[in-house]
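The methods section describes the discrete structure representation at length, but only in general terms. The central task, working out the structure tokens from the amino acid sequence alone, is never made concrete. Nothing conveys this as quickly as seeing an actual entry. For illustration, here is how one protein appears when written out as sequence plus structure tokens:
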Amino acid sequence: MARDRESRELERLRRRRRVRRQRMLAAAIMLMLGGIGVGVAIGLAGGGHRRRAAATTDASTPTTTAVPPPRVLPSAYAVGLATLQLVDTSRSVKFLDGRTEPRTLTTTVRYPALGARSDVDEEGAAPDTTDGPYPLIVFGEGYDESPSFYRLLLQSWARAGYVVAAPAFPLESPEAPGGPLETDLVNQPADMRFVIDQLLGESAGGSGPLAGLIDPHEIAVAGQSDGGDTALALAYDPRFRDRRIGAAAILSGAEIPYLSPFTFPAGGPPLLATQGTADTINPPGATYQYFAAAHRPKYLLRLPGAEHLPPYSSQQPQLGIVERSTTAFFDVYLKHRPASLRALHAAAAVPGKATLQAEP
């Protein structure tokens, strides 16, 4: 049943993503005619096979100065679970069934908790505040997916010492009344920003499981597919950019296709992009295009032969590679442990399954 469902989801997303990338191609051609050049159009028309000519494989750590040694923390935590109903009354959403209501983001939050490590989320578990506050990661789901689809990946980050918030976007969610609507994607960067605001407020409050648990100075965004588009926009697009973001992990995502391309800002947050080379929903060329435009530090994790959804939900060893790579990346740039760059390289050193292009 699970395999059949995943096959249906892949085919549905493949059709929708193909249409979106065709729109991106049309936009790129228009820009080319306006004098921007042929590189973008060729990269998209080539079906995602255009890559940068050189890849860096140097495993040395970045140079740092005056960085205090990190605290020795537990290697793994139990995972607590809280569900928040976050309502943005300043904006509304109109569902396909005709109903209109304030934008409500049902947000699943995982956090380091007291107790023995387990593969099960402990709802309402007492938080482990001893080693806090912890960095915050806000994760965006893909189109017509729920945060629970990515449970194993999100658990791995919480187990490693992060507070992980995953909102269900109101119109792209499979639970949206009347069905999901992908054109709402342009409103999702503001949703993600709102979730950051609300989570910081929950942490600053004097009660609740998240009280005092989040470090407001160490925030990352991540996302897969449309959620990756959302996170990319919030981290780098001048129309949406949130300067509180200190790192971004984009899993088989791209620039929002309904909008014109943007120029990556100098001094933007470090980037980790991941991409399956057999992904026909988010073609590899879409990832390679924005990765080439981004400034350092940046890392590109390629997953040879991997498709769009499986590496982020259940497929092994790909899921484990993504878990270890993203955690090491966050450890470098949110926990400021430069030695974890070695762990990032090691996570991607799986012959035939992963390669890493590193430009620290």
Observations:
- The CA atoms of residues 187 and 230 lie 9 Å apart.
- The radius of gyration is 19 Å.
- Residues 9-16, 18-72 have pLDDT under 50 and may be disordered.
- Strands lie at 78-94, 100-113, 122-123, 134-140, 163-168, 214-224, 245-251, 271-276, 298-303, 355-359.
